[in-house]
Amino acid sequence: MTVEQNVLQQSKSQKHQQTFLNQLREITGINDIQVLQQALKDSNGNLELAVTFLTAKNAKVPQQEEATYYQTALPGNDRYISVGSQADTNVIDLTGDDKDDLQRAIALSLEESNRAFRETGITDEEQAISRVLEASIAENKASLKRTHPEVWSDSPNPYDRKRQDSCPVGLKNVGNTCWFSAVIQSLFNLLEFRRLVLNYNPPASAQDLPRNQKEHRNLPFMRELRYLFALLVGSKRKYVDPSRAVEILKDAFKSNDSQQQDVSEFTHKLLDWLEDAFQIKAEEERDGEKPKNPMVELFYGRFLAVGVLEGKKFENTEMFGQYPLQVNGFKDLHECLEAAMIEGEIESLHSENSGKSGQEHWFTELPPVLTFELSRFEFNQALGRPEKIHNKLEFPPILYLDRYMHKNREITRIKRDEIKRLKEFLTVLQQRLERYLSYGSGPKRFPLVDVLQYALEFASSKPVCTSPIDDIDASAPLSGTVTTQTIPSTTEQQGPSSSEIPSTSPVQRSVIHKPFTQSRIPPDLPMHPAPRHITEEELSVLEGCLHRWRTEVENDTRDLQESISRIHRTIELMYSDKSMVQVPYRLHAVLVHEGQANAGHYWAYIYDHHQRRWMKYNDISVTKSTWEELERDSFGGYRNASAYCLMYINDKEQFLIQEEFNKETGQMLLGMDTLPLDLKDYVKEDNKRFEKELEEWDAELAQKVQQEKLLASQTPRMPAPSSAPAQAGEPEYLEQPSRTDLSKQLKEDSVRAITKALAEQEVRSPETVMQTAIKLEYARLLKLAQDDPPPECDYRLHHAVVYFMQNEAPKKIIERTLLEQFGDHNLSFDERCRNIMKVAQAKLEMIKPDEVNMEEYERWHQEYRNYRETTMYLMVGLELFQKKSYMEALLYLIYAYQNNKELLSKGLYRGHDEELISHYRRECLLKLNEHAAALFESGDDQEVNNGLIIMNELIVPCLPLLLVDETEEKDIAAVEDMRNRWCSYLGQEMEPNLQEKLTDFLPKLLDCSTEIKGFNDPPKLPSYSTHELCERFARIMLSLSRTPADGR
Predict the structure, then answer these.
(1) Is residue 546 a contact partner of residue 456, using CB atoms and an 8 Å limit?
(2) Mind listing the pLDDT tens digit for each residue in 568-598?
């Protein structure tokens, strides 16, 4: 009887019993099927009670290592049965033993799932899907209802959310749904899968009314998935919202629990649902033949299980979907596969009379898309919680699977035997090499060649004929040494007598080492120990032996190392011959998890097969990447990030990644041309809505500009009538009498220049004096611009022209700025200055529009205003930081950094020291994180809530700023420190309410996209005069120079 026929005979209760057994295995870490079945039987199906039986200290677990290990491929065992539609027919999957569900394994949830199944008939896995989806939707809706302002939010400017050219579209995280984004993007970028989804037409029989629960669930989901894929193809938005597809998943089941979802579990369930949807269509279209399901054709393969159980041979063909692989104890993907394909004592497979048990798996049919689940979680029974395995596991961009194919099993067995023989020989050689490299019988061991060298150096040292202590005067110890004997009281040698010394005994004195005051070693004292008695003949014989022995050891060590390298190379090339590289699979996508077992963040690296480059899909952020970055984040062993799921595709099946072509013209179809008509209309409507949003934004900005111009025209430039018209576009910092902060400084500078010009000029006509004054002012400012002052003395704050000069502004801009200075109405306080003011105003009127580009003039002055504003943000932020007002300082420092970065992007001298601002921004976040953690540790409800408010409203929204530039290693390290600080609580005992809050908060901390969002409202800045601004800035910078900061 085949496994497929046997599966059809499985009853519904048997399948759910297997689900319960899987849950027990995940919770307790016990793999013995008989023990789990007995515990379930003794507890009468009560899973909570069964867990208690199995985890009790006095529980006796029988040791059955062989019989239970090979149950998996025997008839009657349904470990590999898929939960989807194929489980009802003939699909066998390898995902039954899913240890990644351990994070849900607490007794209360088990009890609820048990009760829910008895009442509703809905499986526990379906309820788990429902719980996470409800949590995602609820969190998304809750975030829309928040009344308190956050530091970051979606940019109100739609141009920030506009798609750039043909850049891939991202997916918005609608609340703990990074797992959804990672899986969907991986599948969407499989062009054949994309075509199947986009061209899916629901069966005609189900158009009006779904016939059953599966149709009621799957068909609406397929509709929303088609819409989502269509938007990913043709949207003009930078990212789209998948909430409607997630809503469909949520509505399919009912539950109140919340949990971050697991990628492999979601992928498994998603493919099941797609399989169901396509099965409905396939059954409708069949013409007497067995219907073909494209999802099965794409993602499912077959393997042959050949084994021996207690001397009885068996052979079964089974189907599989996602293939699970253990990570712990293996260094690369091939080692994982070898371990998964061979179980037990395989020698028994080739012998007739053996009582041993074992089995081999051989692929008979590989799917076009082959997905490996990497099991990176294990249950720690001592701690009673799941833990993530961070071990490094390498995998190649091209994976050759010939060695695992049934057609190659004979040659593979030969090669495996040869590799086994080589590894046994390798072990012997490594043991021998270890004896040379770690020589000795004590706890400390050294390389033998070094031991011989040390002996040779000792023997060759200059002999000494005295004891090492004979030449030391005990009555006068060497400087810097302290004898343990009582110090003599001789006044000449020791100073005060012993009666004058405090009561502390000389014996109890601690030795004080003074490396710079102690006397040096006497020149005649040998640097190393040396033999006291040795003849020339003895030395000659000994040196000859030691030289010869060292040479022999060196040769032996080198031969062993070379032999080990040759064997390693032989093993590596064992499968490199042409016959074993005929089944290439190319890495298509890597799903990465960062965090711990209980919480984390997912993103995906996906290969662009046409551009031949890797792309990183991190929720709404889609960026170019490299294999080196993928290695760092995916292999493991670096930070807390590692690959969790690998998706390979058959490199010879080009239809998987091939673009569509127009059948009539032969031209490649791209973008909207690939969509069916109904989806084209859907995307066009969405794009129209987005274009309308852009138009409304433009209209709103135009209206604001018009209002500002109207307001400016209605504001009088002078308090008294004057023949000089108001100068349009005068910079805001050249304030009028109502705001004299900067004008007062400019007035003083102008008067000083005029006074000096009058002293130099014999002919004192207003025009001549003005020209001389402008030249003098220009020379003064040029000198300031060319000086190299200390950080506390920033001359750019003194005058806009200094800023313009340092940044090479056009000469016309500088000239007009100086004319504006001398044409300011504040110079009308006496007749002499008033005449010069009128001449300057007349000169301004004579400047033609084509001589000075006023738009460019305004841009330069606006940039200077931005520079002064950035300075004030920095100054106030640093002042608050020094006062330890970190919450208030953070926002100022964030705005200072962002504004400064924008300034520096235009030129080196347009902003402040970026490292300085970055350091204090980083320090502020770290101190706030520590403060929030301390509040959380207090356990007081109010304190805990305050700590989480700090994290949610200040720190978490700011983390993308530190992660956006991957070259800033200090910022990335700071983020890791903050995350690890909170992840460390996962292994600690705490109250249930704290555990619940931590579980809810951690995904937000770890789910941190590098997408920079817009500001809400910047902090208010006080008004400073130029003199006060320069003085306060100098004061704060001087205080920093007295306590240097890292990064300055």
Answers:
(1) yes
(2) 999 989 898 888 999 999 999 999 888 776 6
Exposure string for 904-928, b = 16+ CB within 10 A, e = fewer: eeeeeebbbeeebbbbbbbbbbbbb
Burial code (b: 16+ CB inside 10 Å, e: under 16) for 309-341 equals beeeeeebbbbbbbbbbbbeebeebbbbbeebb
Would you place residue 87 in the very low, low, confident or very high pLDDT band (cuts 50, 70, 90)?
A: very low
Kind and range of the H or E run holding 778: helix 766-786
Q: Is 549 exposed, middle or buried (0-12, 13-18, 19+ CB in 10 A)?
A: middle
Distance CA 1035, CA 906 (A): 28
The residue with tokens 């090669």 is 415
Model pTM greater than 0.70? no
C-alpha to C-alpha distances, 702 to 273, 699, 715, nearest whole angstrom: 50, 5, 20
Greatest CA separation found in the chain? 125
Structural domains of the chain, with CATH = 3-52 (1.10.8.10)
The per-residue b/e assignment along 22-58, b for 16 or more CB within 10 angstroms, e otherwise, is bbbbbbbbbebbebbeebbeebeeebebbbebbbeee
Distances (CA, A) of 910 to 806, 864, 992: 8, 8, 53
- Enter the DSSP assignment of 797: G
Burial group, residue 890, by CB count within 10 angstroms (0-12, 13-18, 19+): buried
Cα angle: 179, vertex 184, 190; to 5 degrees:
140
Tokens of 405: 């194919």
Question: Alpha-carbon distance 665 to 442, whole Å?
Answer: 82
* pLDDT score for 100: 43
C-alpha–C-alpha distance, residues 436 and 553, integer Å: 8
| 576: exposed, middle or buried (Cβ count in 10 Å: 0-12, 13-18, 19+) | exposed
Q: How many H helices and E strands in the chain?
A: 32, 18
Distance CA 339, CA 330 (A): 9
Classify 774 in phi/psi space as left (phi over 0), alpha (psi -120 to 50) or beta: alpha
Q: What is the 3-state secondary structure (H, E, C) of 944-993?
A: HHHHHHHHHHHHHHHHHHHHCCCCCHHHHHHHHHHHHHHHHHHHCCCCHH
For residues 872 and 36, give the distance between their C-alpha atoms in angstroms, rounded to a whole number: 68
Q: Which of 277, 254, 318 is nearest to 116 (CA)?
A: 254
pLDDT, tens digit, 9 for 90 and up, residues 281-327: 766 666 556 668 888 899 999 999 988 887 788 889 999 888 889 88
Q: Burial of 725 by CB count in 10 Å (0-12 exposed, 13-18 middle, 19+ buried)?
A: exposed
Interatomic CA distance for residues 807 and 830, integer angstroms? 36
Q: Which residues pair with 301 in a beta bridge?
A: 320
DSSP code for 849: T
Which residues are part of the catalytic machinery? 178, 593, 601
Contacts of 185 by beta carbon, 8 Å cutoff, 6+ apart: 171, 604, 606, 617
Q: Which two tokens stand for residue 89?
A: 């027919």
Cα–Cα distance between 659 and 648 in angstroms, integer?
Answer: 19
Pull the structure tokens for residue 196: 């199947």
Q: At what angle do helices 243-252 and 213-234 cross, to 10 degrees?
A: 170
Give SS3 for 204: helix
**In whole angstroms, how far apart are CA 770 and each of 778, 798, 814?**
12, 21, 16
What does the pLDDT average to over 29-45? 68
